[in-house]
Amino acid sequence: MTATLILTFLNPVLALLVGLGLFLLRQTNAAVRPYVRWFPKSAFAFAGGISAQLILPYGSFAASFLSAVLILCSVIFLCIGVLERFGKSVDPAFGGAVVAAPLVTILYFALEPATAGLRTVILNLTAAGMIFVTAFRLYRSGVRYLVDRILIRVLAINAVLFLMLAACPDCIDRRWLGAGTAIEPPLWGLVQLASFLGLLALTLTVTACIAHDFVAAAHRDGQHDPLSGLLNRRGLETHARLDRAGAFALIYLDIDYFKQINDVAGHAAGDLVLRDVGRMLDAMVDPPHLAARIGGEEFVILLARASEYEACLFAEHLRRTIMRHRFASLPPQHEVTASFGVAIRRGDESLLDLMDRADRALYAAKQAGRNRLRVFHTDRHPADEADRVLSG
After folding, report:
1. pTM score
2. Cα distances (Å, whole numbers) of residue 336 to 30, 144, 320, 325, 367
């Protein structure tokens, strides 16, 4: 077997192995993001399409139409997976039309062996167009990471390869494979090598994207509280940029009588209360401000460029929101309240020191009867300050 023949059959084998590997990864690892499910489908379809071209009789209806269906499905599965990774989608009507139009055309010419070259042109032009549009959409969206920029370039290279095949259909005339006396097209080996390298580059890049997303998700999960969806203590310490100039205010809140909620309604109901409070904070706190659940029923909000007055208004609004909210996991008559402590950063004070002063103000609010707000002003205990209770 010549090196050219090895390259010819290496493309579907590589696609089959890639599809199998990604399928097993998807089945055995729940942490893999949902978009990955499209890539084994794409690889299997591509392997089937190329195999149909190589195995079935040249010019036959089965070879022409089946390979076209599988290869176009492979490309559209690839594009859907890539776009889904970036939070984008393919309009079903548009995608169906893009695939159906060339298939209908290929079907029209499928029974005419003399039009094999035209079918090749139609197939490869459609595949190139779909990949180019996908790469362009990603480019327009403004990617942040190096692996994403590499992915766009690799997609563009593969689109160019399809264009080359469309421009030179005689280079992939495979009639010589079934006829020992036929002459191999002069560029056949080069085309097969370019196709293999393009597929290999795409495989490595997609694998790198999956690995990047897996590591990013693990890093993100390590800094977020799974119940509330907010930052955890580690995430707060990581994202809090107190080295920047400007005023910072920290709000420390604790849900009142939370142990009673767990005792009366159950821990599952208590978890739902924490989840709902987390959703309230997530809806109310936008960058550059931060919200975190730092343990149990305790939450922290770090407000950037906020005065004491602004922090108190925010805390009071949140206090009233929690008090008026009816939690689905609790009886209708059960009112949930929270106590708040507020502290304003002093100079280059660390996050831990700022949290400590807000925590002391929170303790004073609880000592004063709960469901209220205290502001820490001096190094004296907040209970010794002038009354700063805004409510309750």
Report:
1. 0.69
2. 36, 42, 10, 8, 18
